[in-house]
Amino acid sequence: MNSFDCYGAIFLYKMKRFLLLLTMKPSILVGGQAVIEGVMMRVPGAYATAVRDPEGKIHIQKKEFESITERSNIWNKPILRGMASLFESMKMGMATLQYSVDIAMPEEDEQSKIAEFFSTAFAIGLAVTLFMIAPMWITTKLMNIEKEALWFNLASGSFRIAFFVVYLLAISLLKDVKRLFQYHGAEHRVIYNFESGKDVTIENAQSFPTQHPRCGTSFLFIVLLSAILVFAVVDTFVIYILGTISLPLRLLFHLPMIPFVSGIGYELIKLSAKSNSIFFSILKKPGLWLQNITTKHPEDDMVEVSITALQEAFGDKYEEMLGKEYTAEAIG
After folding, report:
1. What range does the domain containing 302 cover?
2. What are phi and psi of 49, to 5 degrees?
3. Which ranges constitute the DSSP H helices of the chain?
4. Domain total for the chain?
């Protein structure tokens, strides 16, 4: 190849890159969470929670926020960023949920808040029992595969997923939870509306689906799948080193691995949001199906609350962010 051909090839390559960049959608981190009678929206640099009180007034709380994954050269690495994001999301979620309770249920007294603390502790204990102890205990009692790491975790993982689905179906029957799931649907529709580049309005938002591939429900399902493989590897090493394994030993080694499993799930859902491959299309299907349970058709006033949260989160930048099609980076 002579020098002219070489420069010509470089020129064509750069032109292709330039045209590709012109057609690529900008990416942005927009996520959210349904709370009691409201929605929290998270955007780069801030998050805002909008809650409607019993009189119909919308209250707003906005806080500046910069993730440790943006400030640290360690916590921005794959897996670790998922672990950090999970911790931050849980901390943020608990705080915004408490804010929504204070606004939507102002009549609660101090005793009610103490009772809420114990109910939270009970919920954590129930989750560990239902999704960790019970599946492994049932597998141990019903099947003689305790030392077969892969088969044991496939069985206990299947029980865990079954319990998760039944749990979601059961709580979806509760009136208050149904409203929470409606606000969840409102959050998704407004994010879809924003990412589409169309004007963010109640009418436009209501035209979008309530199922979103980056939803926390989809994330949890992928975490449950990831746990099967990770726990199987852990059990294999434990059996190899100790020569035996039991339910207490499994709990001892599995519980500390939950953040790591969540980190893997975070990476998988990020990849699934950007890929249209058959593998990721299949991986997304169960989570989208589960959102038929965890998201419901929202009322217009719920969508209004969600839009308000998005507007307040962006603040002065809101107008300049509109009118563009976006690809997404975060779990919403």
Report:
1. 30-328
2. -120, 125
3. 3-23, 68-71, 80-104, 110-128, 134-142, 149-171, 175-196, 202-205, 216-242, 247-254, 258-274, 278-294, 300-314, 318-321
4. 1
d(CA 28, CA 44): 8
40 membership: H or E segment, kind and range: strand 38-43
Would you say residue 233 has pLDDT above 60?
yes
Instruction: Evaluate whether residue 21 is within a structural domain.
Output: no
Q: How far apart are CA 262 and CA 79, in angstroms?
A: 8
Instruction: Identify residue 246 by its one-letter amino acid code.
Output: S
The proportion of the chain whose per-residue pLDDT surpasses 70, expressed as a percent, equals 85
**Could you tell me if residue 12 is inside a domain?**
no
Least confident stretch, 1-10, 73-82, 93-102, 241-250: 1-10
* Backbone φ and ψ of 298, nearest 5°: -85, 155
From residue 279, give the alpha-carbon distance in Å to each of 34, 229, 259. 29, 17, 24
Q: How far apart are CA 69 and CA 92, in angstroms?
A: 15
Q: Measured between alpha carbons, how far is 213 from 291 in angstroms, rounded to an integer?
A: 9
Task: Count the alpha carbons within 13 Å of 76 in the hemisphere toward its beta carbon.
Answer: 8
Q: Please state the pTM of the whole predicted model.
A: 0.84
